[in-house]
Design brief:
The chain is mainly α. The chain is built from 6 helices and 2 strands; from the N terminus they run H-H-H-H-E-E-H-H. The chain has a two-stranded antiparallel sheet with strand order 1-2. A hairpin with a 2-residue loop joins strand 1 and strand 2.
């Protein structure tokens, strides 16, 4: 027996959020891997945070937002947000352990959510949020900081930087490869099948 349509849609919303979060984490992980330990703690100027601090903040935010997600306010009384912006980790291993703890909390909680949970309301600093809004708010926050990490890593790595997404000037080749593996092609109208073509 197939699940109700609303349950199917709810499951899709949760699965798509997980996929988007995993993509963001993956980009950040690949960027960080290209930097030396010293570069992780190197700010671009006096008004910017180093990558280690950004990672510390993201992890702290995720732990606070996604611990007891449905039952307690997303801003936990034990969170010290200001401390997150102090570069305090002694080495890469300690930083990565903290980083992984935050993401683990997120993914563990998302795995427990059901379609029915999407109809619930949670609080963030006392402000009501629908569960989908809370998910999107967290995803936007992560995306913002992952973008910072990638931009800073590009600058710090310099000539050693290895492109993580589509390389400059490589869109045509990427699209040709992608379209060769899917039902979509720029010369086909939406919904038109390519099953009879020999492209």
């Amino acid at each position: 027996m197939n699940p109700p349509a609303d349950n199917t849609l709810g499951a899709t919303v949760i699965e798509s959020a997980v996929a988007a979060f995993r993509s963001n984490k993956g980009w950040a992980d690949r960027a960080v891997a290209q930097l030396s330990d010293a570069q992780l703690h190197q700010a671009l100027d006096a008004n910017t945070n180093c990558i280690a601090v950004i990672m510390k903040h993201v992890a702290g935010n995720l732990r606070s937002r996604w611990t007891d997600f449905l039952t307690t306010d997303g801003e936990k009384p034990w969170r010290d947000r200001d401390e997150e912006f102090i570069d305090s980790f002694p080495d890469r291993a300690a930083l990565l352990e903290h980083w992984e703890t935050g993401w683990h909390c997120l993914f563990e909680t998302l795995a427990t959510l059901s379609a029915a949970d999407l109809e619930k309301t949670v609080l963030i600093r006392g402000e009501p949020h629908s569960v989908p809004l809370a998910i999107h708010r967290s995803l936007a926050h992560c995306g913002y900081h992952v973008g910072q990490i990638m931009m800073m890593a590009t600058i710090l790595a310099g000539e050693r930087w290895q492109t993580i997404t589509i390389p400059r000037g490589g869109s045509r080749l990427h699209n040709a490869r992608a379209w060769g593996q899917s039902q979509y092609s720029p010369d086909k109208t939406p919904g038109e099948s390519r099953s009879n073509s020999q492209e």
